[in-house]
Amino acid sequence: MHKEFLMGNEAIALGALAAGVNLVSGYPGTPSTEVLETIAKRNPGNVYVEWSINEKAGMEVAAGAAYTGARALVTMKQVGLNVASDPLMSLEYIGVKGGMVVLVADDPGPISSQTEQDTRTFGMFSKVPVFDPASVAEAYEMIQEAFDFSEKYGTPVFFRATTRVDHGYEAVEVKDPAEYYVNKPEGFVKDPSRWVIFPRLSVKNHALIEKRNAELKDVLSDYPRNQILKEVEPAGCRKGIATHGVNFMYTLDSLHGRNARVMRVATPFPFPEKLALEFLEGLDEVLCVEELDPVIERALTFICGKYGLKVKIRGKLTGDIPPSGENSMEIVGNALTQFLGETAGNGAQSDGGNVLPQPPALPVRPPVLCAGCPHRASFYAVKAAMRGKKTIYCGDIGCYTLGNAAPLDMCDTCLCMGAGIGIAQGVGHIEPDTKCFAFVGDSTFFASGITETINAFYNQADMTLVVLDNSTTAMTGHQPHPGTGRTVMGQIVEKVSIEKVLRAIGLKVVETVDPLDYTLSVETVKRVADEPGVKAIIFRSPCIAISKPKGHSHVDPDKCIACGKCIRELGCPALILGEDGKKAKIDTSMCTGCTLCEQLCPVKAISGGNKNDTAIPGEDLQKGGRHE
Hints:
single chain; Rossmann fold; 4 domains
């Protein structure tokens, strides 16, 4: 054993390695991404690791491994669970032979997600047990216990960490590689009565799942991480606090020995009913401190009704805890102060009963596309080409969602990965006079854009697909994908060509252009958009974070006429006002020399940039040439 200062996701990864994981699959998504990356980095050499094409594929790969008796881990964020839910819902009916942990990182806030969906609720819906760690150190231990539990009961299990656990840090006592558990899979044993799902098998196994989960309520009541902290309970206590996850840590920090009994729920499903009955005994009121859904509150309300207990259960449903958003020390401290009959006074925040001054408001700093980002050039070219025409620009999930911000205003819709292609089709079928564009990144195209494009071609849609190919999965940390020619394990593989995929689907018009060539890009968009049916433009230029700048542009103040076009129309963070407050100036600490502003300046007052070589190795950049 030795001690390391670890991020939560790193601790989870090392815990999985210590548990003898044999295979790890997943799809990148904040706040889950570092788990798989850490396993790839710290791989002792006997673990297969892959970034799967999407979460559904990752779930199925992990299930196949678990069928052999291997220990498998699949990672994703909460919205990725929606993509993986199809195989998961059936997998619970089939079961597994080896331990299989489904790591889902929830994102209260949300800080970097579309939704605040709660995997604890999904656990109840799918009938899959849920483990809910409260700290970084506990996450390291708990994931090992989750593998043991999964293997013992033949079921996949959720490991539901949240952003504050995933991205928190703590000194953790971890095992040396020599101490790792070694799991030797038996191998797949053919047995259609077990592995082939049919209605008859589903009916039988559904009954067994319900029976098992009912029994697990008592089993998990004895799980040591489900606990009642009687050692902090004063005599004659009549109030209780039920909590979970990082909120358990907030509660302990806020209590400071005040008069309350505390129950921590580490396995929200199946709910530890026997422990809850012990907790509720002798109490008049309970405050449920939890994030997102009122899972604990509903469970305790149900138990009180089932057993005729006269205990008032309070929380989100009673307005004592905010119904949405991420909790904080201040929110929990204020809730406990109100619940325990104390006052913070003057509307000030409270931390464990101590009155704190109101902090100053934080400055609003909306996210923007990086200086030199090729997506800015792509959006601007389409905007310029379509000026004056009735259009809709359907966006997608990734850096390019930031195209919605002023002054670009080039993202009219954004729903989920790949949906922009479908939405463009729907609008086009109802409004045939609208020029419909769908923007999708190269990684997202492989993850969920191909099927939508096939649907568009098959159903005779009239739309322009714009693939923003920056040669990486940029927003989640530059993970490889099928178009990059490498895997997370370092293998060099043949790239999957987006052009060839589109031609194979049947598209006749597929053009590839460098978005930083402004004149050619505008001409290409005008020509392609006028073609009938489904057509595609691939804007290919590498992400500025992986292709470093070779020079900087600068503004000649004698030539600048202070028209403001470069600042007003591009919104590049490197373009600022000079000392006179009128003429443009370039912040060379941010400028990447992409030359886009140089091409747009009406008086050629900007120069000096040295545009990066935008050709991605192994691909031919077509200068507007049509691919037939």
